[in-house]
Specification:
mainly alpha; Hypothetical protein af1432; globular
Length: 194
C-alpha cells in the first residue's frame, strides 16, 4: 500500500477546506495529533508500529470535518459525530485504500459500537467503528489530547478520562486500556501556535 506523503495530504486538506480558517483549524489539529503520536512512538516498546502509516492516519483522520463546515465557516455541531464516516467516504472517492480510510471512521471517542449508534440514536449507519490495529488505536489515542476549539488546548489523560465519564464507565475503561498500551504523551501546558 502506498502511504501518501505529508505534502499530498496537505493538498487534500486544501482541496476540501471550505474556508482558510477551516483549513487552519483542522489541518493544524491533524499536525498536532501527529506530534503527539510521534512523542509516543519514541518509546522503544512501540518500535514495531509503522510510523509512516501512523503519520498518514493522524494527518487524515479529521478530513471529514470539512464536509460539516459551510461556506461561511459554520460547523454543523449536531452532526459532528458523522465526520469520521464522511472522511471515510471522501477518501474512498479519492481512491485511498481501506486501511487509510479507517483512520477517519474508526477514531471517534474511544470507539463507537453498533449498540452505541443505536442506543444513542447517532446519525451514522449502525456498525462497529472500533480501532483494531495498533496504528489505528494510536491515532485514536493521540487525538484525545488536543481540541480544535478556539482557543485549542491540550488535555491531560486525566482530563480526557473525566470528559469520557459522561458516556459511561466502559468508555473510561477503554481509554485506560489505551493509556496502558501507549503511555502518557507528556505534553506541554500550552498549544504551539502557527
Amino acid at each position: 500500500m502506498k502511504i501518501p506523503a505529508p505534502a499530498e495530504i496537505r493538498a487534500l486538506h486544501e482541496k476540501y477546506a471550505p474556508t482558510s480558517q477551516a483549513f487552519a483549524d483542522v489541518h493544524t489539529h491533524c499536525e498536532i495529533v501527529w506530534g503527539v503520536a510521534e512523542r509516543l512512538l519514541a518509546s522503544p516498546r512501540l518500535a514495531h508500529l509503522d510510523a509512516g502509516l501512523v503519520r498518514a492516519g493522524c494527518l487524515l483522520h479529521d478530513i471529514g470535518v470539512y464536509r460539516l463546515i459551510d461556506a461561511e465557516g459554520r460547523l454543523d455541531y449536531p452532526n459532528y459525530v458523522r465526520h469520521g464516516v464522511l472522511g471515510h467516504e471522501l477518501l474512498e472517492q479519492e481512491g485511498f485504500p481501506e486501511p487509510l480510510r479507517r483512520f477517519c471512521s474508526h477514531h471517534t471517542g474511544v470507539g463507537l459500537t453498533k449498540d452505541d449508534v443505536i442506543s444513542r440514536n447517532l446519525p451514522v449507519p449502525p456498525a462497529d467503528y472500533l480501532a483494531e490495529t495498533p496504528e489505528e488505536r494510536l491515532v485514536m489515542y493521540a487525538d484525545k489530547f488536543h481540541t480544535k476549539s478556539r482557543p485549542s488546548v491540550f488535555l491531560t489523560p486525566d482530563e480526557y478520562a473525566e470528559h469520557l465519564r459522561r458516556f459511561g464507565e466502559d468508555k473510561v475503561t477503554a481509554f485506560q486500556a489505551l493509556r496502558a498500551e501507549f503511555g502518557d504523551p507528556g505534553l506541554p501546558a500550552t498549544v504551539p501556535t502557527g
